[in-house]
Amino acid sequence: MTEGTAVAEAPANNLGLEQDLSDAVVGTWADDTEPAFVIAPDRILDVLTRLRDAHGFDFLSNLTCVDYQGYGGKLRAGIDARLEVVYNLYSTRRGGGSIALHVRVPENDTVPSATSVYPGANLQEREVYDLFGVNFDGHPNLRRILLWDGFHGHPMRKDWHEAYYEEDAKPFRSRHPKGEYAFHEDKLPWAKNTTYPAGWDPDSWQEAVAYVPVSQAPQHANEPHLDTESIVVNLGPHHPSTHGVFRMLTRVEGETILALEPEMGYLHRNHEKIGERNTWLMNMPFTDRLDYLNSMSNNWAYALAVEKLADVEVPERAEYLRVIMAEFTRIVNHTWSIGFILNDLGALQTPALYAIEEREMILDLFEAVSGARMMCNYMRFGGVVRDLPEGWREQAAYLANERLPRALDELDRLLTENEILKARGRGVGYLAVEDLIALSVSGPMIRAGGLAYDIRKAEPYGIYDRFDFDVPTLPNSDIYDRYYIRLLEARESVRILQQALRDMPEGEILGGRGGYTLRAPEGEVYGRLEAPKGELGFYLVSDGKTQPWRYHVRSPSYINLNALGPMSVGYKVADAIVILGAIDIVLGEVDR
Amino acid sequence: MFGTGLLKGLGVTLKHALDTFEDDRESVPDRYKGSLDLGNNRRVIQQPIDQEGLLTIQYPEEKRLLPERFRYIPMLIWDSEKQEDRCTACGICAKVCPPQCIWIVRDSDENGKPVTRCSEFYIDAAVCMSCSFCVEFCPFDAIKMNHDYELAVYDRYPQLVYDMEELTVPLEYYAALWPTQYEEEQARRKEEEEQKRKQEEEKAAKAAARAAAKSAAAATDSSTAQAAPKRSAAELQALAKERAAQRQAQAADAGGDDAAAAKKARMEELKRRAQERARQRKEESGQ
């Protein structure tokens, strides 16, 4: 592709679309890391519908936006429209790679909402609306999601600067120019960040409590002949059952939930904006803080995306080390999650403490190898940063071969046949697996609904194709199955660990360019892996500089919350707590 | 039969209860068997990987044994052999720091010319995210991760902004905390120094040969006689030695200054603590 011609002559047939839709494709970025197709905004729904129905792309994995104002690279120099909405579609039946669709719109323009085709676009479109200011036509509930109504501006736009803004990119010039120490905050005491949107008055503002769909819920669902009233109840944000600061806005009649709407953003720190000022490598320790239970998986997902973009080779031993760390992480996450599902069911502490005994052992191993129990910061582009200390492999092998299988069996004996767990869990929180996929839910949730979709098998990354393991499924899609699937998956992780610890060769652990001066070549990439909670993806755009132009996290915790409302309707308030617990969210990743 | 699942589960909890009960009745419970007793109920405990159950560590009397690679807040290394800070104020640590919590001021000599030494070095421990990038990328092994995690103070400023004095530790302290890595590093440093010395010797030999050739040429060609006489390799080495002696003398003189004396005392104290820790480790590995 020559310079300045971002849009090549439309080879629409690559997308496999029929003749009647071929004019919808207005261009493609064939020279990009992954082929991406630019679609005319008014045809996007037709294309999405056709791809879903006729081509099997049933899973809208990632939906985000990029602001190209001031873009310095050459590849996309021809762009005149400022904002670009990106869709990554996958097929859960077939597996394999993605189709990336792009829709370009000028500032303040509207894009048709994809929610009518993929209901899972709900939260993601709200996030784009909130952070970029793109309006989605036909979205049922287009409100800000991470920020509050009185927030002025759209922070992910390139011309928006935060309150303590210093410079566009790190490293900053010295913060300590004349030997005088000063807090940066003091230089800018509430000067710029107290503007409100036009026509918005903080004094008269009241939060609307009856959001769609809570406001549209039936007033009398169960007892139409009685003169009863449904009421709106807030569960959270400060509540032990919400696993952090998270609010469920419910309309209840008696104990029965008529509608439920998740409210989030209390822990929002604009992770992605920070990521765009950081250099590529600096983002690595920041990913630890997303899903803070699973920093190893987060590290790997980010490294995977950057390696794809910059074409970095990973040595054999490092691949094994990554698998070992990721599978230990999965066991940590699943035992933790099992413990807390039981906690939410009212089995306070005993199952949770038994479940996390081995977690302590695994965290000790993480600490011995990486220096920290949870914020591991262990992976680099092209491998891992430190080799194993003496005796580590033997200890890990002891855990994988003896202690973990025993502990999982014990957990199984303690819980699985328990009549109370069955009574509370069977049939509660049911949602058909087709609906879950349409809602972009991933991970153990859909496998508990009977669909064996696991990225480790569907689109193998790393060296997962070398290991002998199964993808367990359960048929019922209720919270009992969501509990049990995690136990089964932890067993499979143990199997992978046994093989990996047995086969791991000696050798290099860090190949290629692992340094802090990495300049990723221009292009975009979407890299994903099967994190313990579901599909964790990083969408990156590089303009060839030392910082990413766009750094987006497709976090499973956040997108799985799409299903919380539909799953909870019709069940009791006490069940909603467990339904949330069985989704297994971490607020660090939800709010970002 | 209804209820068998419950009974099975209760069996598991009963087993756990009995195990703990039995263990607690022993004169030395299992959880204290491998631990290092510091007296007065103070212990350093590490749970063995095959120890069943989960130990409760009675912090602050009892503490976990930290692995060597444990990272918390960085520290600066004072090279006790050479009597100088290893830091050369190159600023790489400040550049790679993700939250940008390091500030360095490069020192200059009396003529205002910058030198490879920092006059000030700050780390804002309230901002530091313990990622260890500064350690990874330091080319001079001058910054390392400290294990000291008990940093609670009442005010963020200035207590949590560590200056050079608070950050600097002697090499022995580092060697005690990170024995394996220290050994590897020393071996590597020695090798590098050896190579450097060899290269310099070769260079000096070559220069001497050139100088000899030149002086021979000068003897025959009067037009180059006015060129400044080149110093021989032996002379250069003597000069370098002299400078090193001067530096040492300066360092010794600085001991008269109050601040420097305080720092020296501090270093001695840290050294003592490091030695104690090394002794503890030794005892423990002997057990």
TrEMBL record, chain A:
Primary site of residence: membrane
Plastid among keywords: no
Catalytic activity as recorded in UniProt: a quinone + NADH + 5 H(+)(in) = a quinol + NAD(+) + 4 H(+)(out)
Domain NADH-quinone oxidoreductase subunit D: 344-510, 518-592
Domain of life: Bacteria
HAMAP family linked: NDH1_NuoC, NDH1_NuoD
Principal EC category: translocase
PANTHER family linked to this entry: NADH DEHYDROGENASE [UBIQUINONE] IRON-SULFUR PROTEIN 2, MITOCHONDRIAL, NADH-UBIQUINONE OXIDOREDUCTASE 49 KDA SUBUNIT
Encoding gene (name): nuoC
Keyword Cell membrane: yes
SUPFAM superfamilies given in the database record: HydB/Nqo4-like, Nqo5-like
Assigned protein family: Belongs to the complex I 30 kDa subunit family.
Domain NADH:ubiquinone oxidoreductase 30kDa subunit: from-to ranges: 38-162
Localization: Cell inner membrane; Cell membrane
InterPro entries: NADH_DH_suC, NADH_Q_OxRdtase_suD, NADH_quin_OxRdtase_su_C/D-like, NADH_UbQ_OxRdtase_30kDa_su, NADH_UbQ_OxRdtase_CS, NDH1_su_D/H, NiFe-Hase_large
Signal peptide feature range: none
EC number: 7.1.1.-
Gene Ontology CC terms, in alphabetical order: plasma membrane
Protein name as catalogued: Multifunctional fusion protein
Membrane topology annotation: Peripheral membrane protein
Subunit structure, interactors included: NDH-1 is composed of 14 different subunits. Subunits NuoB, C, D, E, F, and G constitute the peripheral sector of the complex.
Keywords: Cell inner membrane, Cell membrane, Membrane, Multifunctional enzyme, NAD, Oxidoreductase, Quinone, Translocase, Transport, Ubiquinone
Gene Ontology molecular functions: NAD binding; NADH dehydrogenase (quinone) (non-electrogenic) activity; NADH dehydrogenase (ubiquinone) activity; quinone binding
Protein task: NDH-1 shuttles electrons from NADH, via FMN and iron-sulfur (Fe-S) centers, to quinones in the respiratory chain. The immediate electron acceptor for the enzyme in this species is believed to be ubiquinone. Couples the redox reaction to proton translocation (for every two electrons transferred, four hydrogen ions are translocated across the cytoplasmic membrane), and thus conserves the redox energy in a proton gradient.
Automatic annotation (TrEMBL), chain B:
Ranges of residues in domain 4Fe-4S ferredoxin-type: 78-107, 119-148
Cross-referenced InterPro entries: 4Fe4S_Fe-S-bd, 4Fe4S_Fe_S_CS, NADH_quinone_OxRdtase_chainI
GO MF annotation: an example: metal ion binding
Gene3D superfamilies, A to Z: 3.30.70.3270
PROSITE patterns in UniProt: 4FE4S_FER_1, 4FE4S_FER_2
Keyword tags: 4Fe-4S, Cell membrane, Iron, Iron-sulfur, Membrane, Metal-binding, NAD, Quinone, Repeat, Translocase, Ubiquinone
Pfam families with a match to the protein in the record: Fer4_7 (PF12838)
Taxonomy, superkingdom: Bacteria
GO cellular component: membrane
Biased composition (Low complexity): 206-239, 246-259
UniProt key word Iron: yes
Methyltransferase among keywords: no
Basic and acidic residues bias: start-end ranges: 188-205, 265-287
SUPFAM superfamilies: 4Fe-4S ferredoxins (SSF54862)
Region (Disordered): 188-287
PANTHER family: NADH DEHYDROGENASE UBIQUINONE IRON-SULFUR PROTEIN 8, MITOCHONDRIAL (PTHR10849), NADH-QUINONE OXIDOREDUCTASE SUBUNIT I 2 (PTHR10849:SF24)
Name of the protein in its database record: NADH-quinone oxidoreductase subunit I
Organism whose genome encodes this protein: Caldilineaceae bacterium SB0661_bin_32
